[in-house]
Amino acid sequence: MPTRVQQPLKVLTMAAIMALGAFAHAADPVTEAMQAANGPYRMALYKTNGKSQDEAMQALLQAQQEWNKLATQFAAKPAAPYDRDTAFAASVAEVNKVYVQALAEVKGGQLTNAHNTLEQVREVMADMRQRNNVVVFSDHMNAYHAQMEVIMIHGNATLAEPKGMLILTAQTGALSYLAKQLGLQASASLNKNTEFSTLLSAVNQSVAQLDAALLNQDMTAVKEAIGKLKGPYSKLFSKFG
Q1: How does pLDDT run across 76-133, given as a tens digit for each residue?
Q2: What does the pLDDT average to over 36-43?
Q3: What is the pTM of this model?
Q4: Could you tell me how many helices (H) and strands (E) the chain has, helices first?
Q5: Quick check: 94 and 124 in contact, CB under 8 A?
Q6: What is the mean pLDDT of residues 191-198?
Q7: Who contacts 117 (Cβ-Cβ below 8 Å, separation ≥6)?
Q8: pLDDT score at 5
Q9: What angle is formed at CA 144 by the lines to CA 140 and CA 145, rounded to 5 degrees?
Q10: Which of 143, 138, 185 is nearest to 15 (CA)?
Q11: Cα diameter, the chain
Q12: What does the pLDDT read at residue 239?
């Protein structure tokens, strides 16, 4: 799982776009290629979060190979709407560099470092889409993830602040909204998928448990619920993110 928190302004900007509904679904060849590369990328994230160096290396090589297909086809001349994006080629090259670094880290047995390095790919792809007014389901997953990490990483420190319980309650309200968006913004085919529905239900339940603990002002239950946010999201992300 990622450990870095995205910038709040960036998160708010993406949330605003989603709330307004001003987005395009993947219907262009570049976004479709990016989505094709996202599957192997998710697996590389998952495997570098494990303990098998061989499995992590295999997954990472597959992810790199899929991104190389996108780079070969579009880096020099991207299709619309990316054709006016002057930073497109630089973003493609940045992802390539991330994969090279992550591969070196996996070869050195540094799977945790490789996992954290790979987080940059998620951010670069999101930036590429946002610059070109394209939003896909992965962006809703990313928005939830960013808010979840605010709570997971800083939750205990927030609770120690004056009115920390109230602050965390507000943050959890935002997380609850983003969790509901996952169901609302998912495609019809996803919502008909039993596995997706089960995994999404687990995500919503993890947020509901945190919300209930906060309403009861039960510090022990709140901390326990914070620790249980990661698992359900990881399972949903690895399959459908």
Answers
A1: 999 999 999 999 999 999 999 999 999 999 999 999 999 999 999 999 999 999 999 9
A2: 93
A3: 0.77
A4: 11, 0
A5: yes
A6: 95
A7: 98, 101, 102, 105
A8: 39
A9: 115
A10: 143
A11: 56
A12: 86
Cα angle 17, 39, 113 (rounded to 5 degrees) comes to: 90
| The domain over range 137-240 is classified in CATH as 1.20.120 | yes
The domain spans of the chain are: 25-131, 137-240
Tell me how many degrees the CA angle 185-186-189 measures, rounded to the nearest 5: 145
List Cβ neighbours of 151 (8 Å cut-off, separation of 6 or more).
158, 168, 171, 172, 175, 210, 226, 229
- What are the start-end ranges of the H helices in 21-131? 29-48, 53-74, 88-107, 111-131
The end-to-end CA distance of the chain, in Å, is 13
Domain 25-131 class in CATH: mainly alpha
Contact 175, 207 (CB under 8 A): yes
Sequence letter at residue 13:
T
Asked whether the domain spanning 137-240 has the same topology as the one spanning 25-131, the reply is yes
pLDDT of residue 115: 94
Q: How far, in Å, CA of 42 to CA of 191, rounded? A: 20
Q: Is residue 202 over pLDDT 60? A: yes
Q: Is the pLDDT of residue 13 over 90?
A: no
**Residue located via tokens 């420190």:** 157
- With 70 as the cut, is the pLDDT of residue 233 above it? yes
